[in-house]
Amino acid sequence: SSTSTSTRPKVVITRNLGPETMPLLLNRDDIDVVLWPEDSYCDRKWLLENIRGAAGLLVMLSDRVDTELLDAAGPSLKVLSTMSVGYEHVPLPELVKRNVRLGYTPDVLTDAVADIAIMLALMASRNAEEVTQLVRKGEWYKQPWSPFLFCGPQLSASTIHPERTAGFIGFGRIAQATLRRLVPFGINTCLYSGNPSTPADPAADAALAAQLGVRTLRRVPLAELAAQSDVVFVLAPGGPATQHIVDAPFLRAMKPTAVLVNAARGTLVDTDALVTALRENWIWGAGLDVLEGEPVIHADHPLVKEPRCTVLPHIGSASIETRQAMAKMAAENLLGGVLDQAMSAEVVG
Ligand code: DGY
């Protein structure tokens, strides 16, 4: 608990991290823990009041970290720890300027997010949204089994389509874990678009292809990726550099039987363009774990209403095992920063 006379460094935590992790923080006598007491989104006013003089702050990706909050913390702040791998919600240059270290949670969520990416690809191609709605409404009897009813393109290779190509916007840990899962589906070609500031390296691509078990792995321009892929996975970081990287020209270039999966950040996909692409059958379907403007997404959102679009409420990392690992890592990063020690994972700005 916090006392105004304590000289121990104060850490503020915007959500309860669960019974496995909280003792790691609460059972120490070298820090003062101030915890948002509700099981709900942390109140901004409470945060601005409590952050004063803190040495560490642990946030969720739903918390807004900005100069107002950093100013309220003041010069005592040494570390920001986010319980996420993405840090689009964090002004990194401001942290660098203020010498505040940033901890995040890579690796531990890679498999959980790759699992969801595969699920979304299957749901989008096999019309899961439309057909589960039908059953929920009790209308299965109206559309009994018939030869070509509810058919969608097959994600895995078939005699008709022995060659399958997956495209990845962003080709980091999660994309590669997703590709590993696609190899047993018979997907043998992988195209990706990487960070434009790093040069293409065909030799490294060939080595990685051998390691991942695909025949072809190539870095290509976005237009080629769009045109060649049977499924496109958006798995790059958010932020200004990738804003609307999937736009109308990209979607128009995709195959009409291809599906788009976004398990990264909503900002990478131009919502209006995707609505048009689905309505006008430029593409087959979409599977989205993230949306621009989330979490304020109403039932009449055009993508929520689109029968060929599955929208999940940002649950990519939401397996019990992964969230526990993320919470623990975020707590360790917080401690590392406050106690001037190494962190499990630190963003170098
Ligand atoms: C992240 O960690 O950035 C994911 O979006 C949620 O776990």
From TrEMBL:
UniProt domain D-isomer specific 2-hydroxyacid dehydrogenase NAD-binding: residue ranges: 118-316
Keywords noted in UniProt: Oxidoreductase
Keyword Oxidoreductase: yes
Highest taxon in the source lineage: Eukaryota
GO annotations of cellular component type: cytosol
Pfam families attached to this UniProt entry: 2-Hacid_dh, 2-Hacid_dh_C
Example of a GO MF term: NAD binding
Limits of the D-isomer specific 2-hydroxyacid dehydrogenase catalytic domain: 11-337
Sequence similarity: Belongs to the D-isomer specific 2-hydroxyacid dehydrogenase family.
Name of the protein described by the UniProt record: Glyoxylate reductase
Organism: Ceriporiopsis subvermispora (strain B) (White-rot fungus)
Taxonomic classification: Eukaryota, Fungi, Dikarya, Basidiomycota, Agaricomycotina
